[in-house]
Structure formats: C-alpha cells, structure tokens
Amino acid sequence: MNKAKIYPWIFAVVFGVVGIIACMKVGQIYDGLSIEASWRFGDKSVMATNDVATIFDILGLLSSYIMFFSITMLFMKAFDFDIASSILGSFIVGLIFGPMFFAIIIHLFCKNSINVAGASFGLFIGVITGLIIGIGARSILKLLNSIIICSILGIIIGQIFCSNGLIVCSPLLLAFASVGYAIGNPITEKAEQRAEIKRREELERERIRREEERRRLEYEQKIREYKSKVEQWEREGYDVSRLKKRWFK
Predict the structure, then answer these.
(1) Averaged pLDDT, 69-81
(2) pLDDT tens for residues 153-195?
(3) Between the CA of residue 221 and those of 208, 215, 224, 226, what are the distances in Å?
(4) Which of 147, 149, 125 is nearest to 134 (CA)?
(5) Is 188 within 8 Å of 8 (Cβ atoms)?
(6) pTM
(7) Rounded CA separation 184/18 (Å)
(8) CB 30, CB 121: distance < 8 Å
(9) How many Å apart are CA 122 and CA 152, to the nearest integer?
(10) Alpha carbon of 239 to those of 222, 225, 227, 248: distances in Å?
(11) Among residues 160, 132, 141, which one has the least CA distance to residue 22?
C-alpha cells in the first residue's frame, strides 16, 4: 500500500474533528437565534416580526438566489453559452426565481417558526458547504453541482431537524473534511513525486551496476579467450614469453 495516499484521509479526519466543533458552536448560535425569532402565520404567509427573524429571511433569500444562479449557470454551460451571457442570464434568473423558491418552500413545508428558521438556515449552511467543497475541487462544473446538491440537502436537513442546531449545521462537517482532503492531496502528490524520483534513481543505479558487471564479465571472458590462444600458440612452438610476461603477470 502506498503510504502517501493516506495523507488526504488523515487531514480529512483532523479537519472533520474541527468541523464537529464548528458545527457545535454554529449550532448553538442557531439555537439561540431560532428561539428569539417569532413569526406570524395567516393565509399561508409568513411574516417576520423582529430583527432576528429578518436575519433568517435574508439568509434564506440570499441562499436561494445563489442556488438558482448556480442552476442557471449549469444549464447554460451545458448548452455552451458564452460566459458573459451565462453570468447575466443566471443573475436575472436568480433574482426572479430565488425569492419565489424561498417563498414556496416556506408556504408548503414550514408549519411553524422553528421550521422556517431551520429551512432558511439549513439552506444557508448548504450553500456555504457547496461553495467550500466546489472551490476545493477547483472545477466550475463541480462547484455548481456541489452548491445545488448541498443546498437541497441543507433545506431537507434544516426543515426536518429544525430543533437541533448541531444537525442543521452538520453539512459544515463535509466542508471541513473536504478542505482537509484538499490540503492533504498536494502533500500526497509531492510525496509520490519524491518516491518516483527515488525509484528512478535506484533503477538508474541498478542499470549502471548491471552495465559494469556486464563489462567486467565480458572483459574476463576476453582475457580467458586470449589466454587460451596464447597457450595454443605455445603448444605449437611459438615463443610467447613476451606475451605471457606482458599480459599474465
């Protein structure tokens, strides 16, 4: 097993532990804010009645805009629109459909104030998680996909587990783990490069050793053949004393 390949997972675990601590702290903040937020329901509409509730509104609307901006960018990228048209079109669609989507989510699925807070904050956490994971992946396509997927995941988790701040913030754990993995990858690449250089150096040394051994055996073989010829010449009566003195001291 290549030991270098374990580095990203070590960093992912370490950052994951940090992520758990961050989730606990952010979850505590969410729990406090969600208790302070108050909402008034009527005709399936939800209206904020204090500043804290307005914060959840803003987070939800902003996150919905980013989500629909990403969806539109992904769609236009699939049809090879130029970058300027894609950004402009995504900006307009996000402004139109982002608030509509947020309103629909609240009206259809949120039955009380804590549900609204959970869905809004969960969507916000999902967008942040998607941004971090996507940036770490260093790919526009992966960035857009991660924002969309994590946003939907954040809404579901926030709406279902709205009374538990730790679970609502749990997608952040994925973000921290992905950052750790992304940090560990270059270390693995460098370690693998060093190992490859070392392996090539060892192969080169082995090649040189084999070449030297081949030349030594070849030289010894030629000496034996020459000695055999000298002995043959001596048996045939030739004077080989000078050759024997020069070559076979």
Answers:
(1) 84
(2) 999 898 888 888 899 999 999 889 888 888 888 877 787 788 7
(3) 20, 10, 5, 9
(4) 147
(5) yes
(6) 0.70
(7) 15
(8) yes
(9) 9
(10) 21, 18, 14, 15
(11) 132
